[in-house]
Amino acid sequence: MPAHRDQSATLLARLEGTACSFCDEGHLVSERDTGTDAVVCAACGTPGARSWTAKPAAADAASALAKSKSD
Ligand SMILES: [Zn+2]
């Protein structure tokens, strides 16, 4: 049993599978394709954790939403 995992990893694990707060149908899933541990909404692509752990992601979230809707 891992005695002490990275705190952010634990946070991500908790976030994974939770409902997206930006759309009605999405749930947060692990996203490591970018090389950064994070969770994003499977439906709208909004980052679910970066905004807390790193830089403010409001603009990124807005652009992700816009991109999703334009597809
Ligand atoms: Zn969403």
Write the layout of secondary structure elements.
Layout lengths: L6 H9 L12 E4 L6 E4 L8 H4 L4 H13 L1
Antiparallel strand pairs: 1-2
Describe the structure.
The protein has 71 residues and is an alpha+beta fold. The protein has one domain (7-70). The protein contains 3 helices and 2 strands. The protein has helices at residues 7-15, 50-53, 58-70; strands spanning 28-31, 38-41. It has a two-stranded antiparallel sheet with strand order 1-2. Residues 50-56 have low confidence and may be disordered. Bound molecules: zinc ion (ZN). Residues 20, 22-23, 26, 41, 43-44, 46 line the site of zinc ion.
Q: What is the count of helical runs?
A: 3
N/C terminus separation:
43 Å
- Count of discrete structural domains: 1
Write down the overall geometry: globular
Estimated helix fraction: 25-40%
Strand order of the largest sheet: 1-2
Bound molecules: zinc ion
User: Structural class, judged by helices and strands?
Assistant: alpha+beta
Quaternary organisation? single chain
Give a quick account of the main beta sheet: strands, pairing sense, barrel closure: 2 strands, antiparallel
In sequence order, what are the helices and strands, one letter per element?
A: HEEHH
Mean pLDDT: 74
Number of strands: 2
Unreliable segments of 5+ consecutive residues: 50-56
- How much β-strand is present in the residues? 5-15%
Radius of gyration: 12 Å
